Amino acid sequence: MNLSIILKGMAMGIAEAIPGVSGGTIAFITGIYERLLDAIGGILGPKVVASWRTEGIASAWTAADGGFILQLGIGMVVGLGIAVFSITELLEMYPPVVWAFFFGLIISSAIYVARQIDKWSILSVLLLIFGTASAYFLTTINPMSGSNSLIFVFLAGMIAISALILPGISGSFILLLLGMYTVVMESVRSLLSGDTGALVLVATFAFGCLIGLAVFSRVLSYTFKTFPNQTLALLTGFMLGSLNKLWPWRNALTTRLNSKGEEVPMLEQAVLPADYLGENTFVPAVIIAFMAGLAIVFVLDRFAPKKDEMDVLEETL
C-alpha cells in the first residue's frame, strides 16, 4: 500500500465534502493530477480491454493503474468520513474561519498553477480571463429547477462528476445550480433506506457519472499533453473565479433545504465584516486561517520530493 497516495486521496475527499472546494485542486497541488486523468480515462480504454482479452485480469488491472485508483479511492472515502464528522461541524460553528482557510488555499493554489506555465501568450491570457469569468458567473446565477427525467439525471451526472477532476469548481455546487442536489441526495437516502423505487434514478445518475469521467478525463489529458500552457491558464482562471464562493463573510440571498430538512444558504453575497449577519465575524481567527491556507501550498511545494525522489519513495512504500 502506498501511504502517500492514500493521504492525497484523504485530502481530496475532505475537499469534495465542502461546497465550493474541488478535489481536482487538491489533486493538482499534490502532483497526482495528470496521473489521475490518465488512470480515469484509461479504465474503459482500448489498452485495458486489450490487456484483459490477451493477458487476463491482472494485466488489465496494471494497465488501468488499478492500484493507484483503489488506494486513492480508499483515501477519499476516509477523507469524506473525516469531513462529515469534523469539517462540516466546524463549518456550522466557525464558518468564516473555515472559508478563510480555503480562500487562502485556493489563492496560493492558483499562483502555484500559474507558475507552472512556461510561456504566457495572448491566448493564455484570454483563457485565464475566460476561466475566471466563467467560474465567477457560476457562483452568481440562480439555480435551475430539478427534474426526475432520466435524461436530465444522466446529464446532471455527466456534468457534476466532471467537476471532481476540474480544479476550482465543486461537483456538489454544480448539482445545486442544476437543481439536482436535493433530487439526487433524497434518492440516494431512500435507496439506502431500502426503497428500491429510487434504484433506477440512482443507477442512471451513476452511469452518467461514469460516462462523464471517461470522456472528460480524456479531453483534459489530451489538452494537458497538447496545449499545456493554455490548459493551465484556463484552470488558473477557474480557481480565481471560484473565490467568490469562498469569501469568509457572506450573507444568504436565497436558501434551500438540505437532506436533513434544514434550511441552508443557496445563493450568497460577499460582504465586509461590518455587514456580516452572522453571530460573530471571527476577524483575528479569519486572518490566521487565511495566512495558514495561503502558506500551506508553498510549504508543500518547498519540501515536496522531486520527481525522481517520488519514484523511489513510491517503490519503497
From TrEMBL:
A Pfam family matched in the record: VCA0040-like
User: What keyword terms does UniProt attach to this protein?
Assistant: Membrane, Transmembrane, Transmembrane helix
* Keyword Membrane appears in the UniProt entry: yes
Annotated signal peptide:
none
Q: Record keywords: Transmembrane helix included?
A: yes
| Transmembrane parts of this sequence | 68-85, 97-114, 120-138, 150-178, 198-220, 282-300
Protein's UniProt name: Putative membrane protein
Q: Which organism is it from?
A: Neolewinella agarilytica
